[in-house]
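Worked Example 4.2. Consider the chain below.
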Amino acid sequence: MENKICLLFNIKYPVIQGGMIWNSGWKLASAVSNNGGLGLIGAGSMHPETFREHVQKCKKATNKPFGVNLPLMYPQIEELISIIIEEGVKIVFTSAGNPKKYTTFFQKKNIKVAHVVPGVKFALKAQDAGVDAIVAEGFEAGGHNGRDETTTLCLIPMVKKEIDIPLIAAGGIGTGRGMLAAMTLGADGVQLGSRFAASIEASSHNLFKEEIVKAKDGATLLTLKDVTPVRLLKNKFFEKITDAIENGATTEQQKEILGRGRAKKGMFEGDLEEGELEIGQIAGLIDSIEPISKIIEDIIIEYKQSLTELNSEKYNF
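Applying the procedure from the previous section yields the following structure tokens:
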């Protein structure tokens, strides 16, 4: 039986690259697609004209399927949607909002739609909205996260139990073993963010990539829960906002400290002290900055080796 995610998106491996802001430009998306996965351009950090440029360059760089990640709360979303239609993008992953408003519209244009959710309630709403697949993202993930703090280990089987459409697991997955574990729990495919952020093709700053490699277990924490929960590497900014929260800072005061452009400052410009350094817990297992071709090859080899091990005496009792 063929894999549901591979069939849905016409890809070789059920491996999706997360559409991470300031990391997921056309070079990363096209490299993932060229190596058998599904690359996504992260529209959330792009002005419309920049977004169009990345889509056009990605179309030239790969003849394989690729898509875009579209945050539904983006202020210029209508302009981005127009570009998606005009440029013939056929896969859209929506996030940060209600998918009901645009799903049918996209599907009438022969565009496949997947939606990212942090919990069962939102997965059911996405299914009711008619999406083609769901990405269930656990608490381990980097960047903006669910408020309920449900881990991938618990989230995937809970969502799988309630939905009938293809399921993609995200959060804390960056190895072949992790991929197999997620699919054993009920996922049809996996979405990786942090592992691809530490790639040569990622559009993020090299200093940020090096910080990912240096990270060990416990290097990240979720913060800004009153504003919008986000998992960050600990740095000067993280300490500043953490101290403010512990001292009773209001939501408005937290927003004032956060300001604007923190994510760009940290991940894209390489300000390791004052920027937001969004990355997942899996960073503790990432020890090198590699080209996408090697990252995907290593993941698939480890996945297949681990699958073989499951039939060995080690697991018979």
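The longest strand covers residues 66-71. Residues 206-281 form one domain. Compare this with Example 4.1 before moving on.
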